[in-house]
Design brief:
Mean pLDDT: 93
Low-confidence stretches: none
Helix content: 25-40%
Strand order of the largest sheet: 7-6-5-8-9
CATH superfamily of the largest domain: Aspartate/ornithine carbamoyltransferase
Radius of gyration: 19 Å
CATH architecture of the largest domain: 3-Layer(aba) Sandwich
Order of helices and strands: HEHEHEHEHEHEHEHEHHHEHH
Structural class: alpha/beta
Length: 327
């Protein structure tokens, strides 16, 4: 594969839908190389003098901290720009398109987590920015998290082809957007994985399903949607659990609270009985924060199959790979 084809410099990173499997392997290989250099204590200041702006309207632990640390280790700098402190909020607020153009004059890249996780704000920022824009989580995409997820699967399973990923919808009183549901579907199908989504009726992915099924067929993978966690977990190599709101909601915080029916959905939880249906070496993943007692049990969270903290660490390494290639 020619280097020019794999040159990602100047690209936006808005969704894994936008990248081929070859391009994505390039991101993963770069992330692995930088992770190895860090562990060997080798300096890798590839972005000396570069500045990343973090334009956030929603709270963050892993994304903010990992991006700031990534830029420091790469020799650059990160600015955290909480939108409530910018002129994007309050009376006479500046339009996003103007903020995007102004920040492009100061920054080398922008990562955005928009208010209410609105996809349209991510794309407006990217449309008007003259520097790379990174989606730091929107309603239907979280490409940095999904990259870390797939990096973790590659490290633990050594391959993607025919790896069964059981994407398990779980009960949760705290509403979350679908985010990685779509990025893992899109890229997982390109990588030849066997994807199974176990979710109640109405919570199934609404976008990209037919496209992903077609791609999976071409890569000798598969994609199906089932109506029980037990069926999804049967023979799984990976159990990826996540509570998400009904697809299509524009404001999950306001609209999701009344959608949960505890008596109806409490049994949608990942526990040790569910792990018994999977392969003996199954790994359990979640983007975190993981809600004990709702999404999964304490025993699963702290158990030997859990790789949640390896997965969280890989946010740092994945984003270093992404940043070094875009900049």
């Amino acid at each position: 594969m020619g280097q020019k084809y794999l040159d990602l410099k100047g690209r936006d990173f808005l969704s894994l839908r936008d990248f081929s499997s070859d391009e994505f392997y390039h991101v993963l290989n770069t992330s692995i190389e930088l992770k190895s250099k860090l562990r060997r204590g080798e300096t890798h200041e590839l972005l000396h003098g570069k500045t990343l702006g973090l334009v956030f309207s929603e709270h963050s632990t892993r994304t903010r901290s990992s991006f700031e640390t990534a830029m420091t280790q790469l020799g650059g700098h990160a600015q955290f720009l909480w939108t409530e402190s910018l002129q994007m909020s309050g009376p006479g607020k500046e339009p996003l398109r103007d903020t995007s153009r102004v920040l492009s004059r100061y920054l080398d890249a922008i990562a955005i987590r928009p208010n209410q996780y609105r996809d349209e704000d991510v794309y407006e920022m990217a449309n008007y920015a003259s520097v790379p824009v990174i989606n730091a989580a929107s309603l239907t995409a979280h490409p940095c998290q999904a990259t870390a997820d797939l990096l973790t699967i590659l490290e633990k399973k050594r391959k993607f082809e025919r790896i069964k990923l059981a994407f398990c919808w779980t009960f949760g009183l705290w509403p979350k957007p679908p985010t990685t549901v779509y990025d893992l579907m899109s890229m997982g199908s390109k990588l030849g994985m066997d994807l199974v989504y176990g979710c109640p009726e109405g919570y199934e992915p609404k976008e990209d399903v037919e496209t992903a099924k077609k791609v999976a067929k071409e890569t000798k993978g598969s994609l199906e949607i089932v109506r029980s966690l037990e069926e999804a977990a049967n023979g799984a190599d990976v159990i990826y659990l996540k509570s998400w709101v009904l697809p299509g909601l524009k404001d999950p915080k306001k609209e999701a609270a009344h959608l949960r029916e505890p008596d109806k959905y409490r049994n949608w939880i990942v526990n040790n009985d569910l792990l018994d249906a999977a392969k003996r070496d199954v790994i359990v993943m979640n983007a975190m924060p993981a809600i004990r007692g709702e999404e999964l049990t304490e025993e699963v969270f702290e158990g030997s199959h859990s790789v949640l903290f390896d997965e969280a660490e890989n946010r740092l390494h994945a984003q270093k790979g992404i940043l070094s290639l875009l900049l």
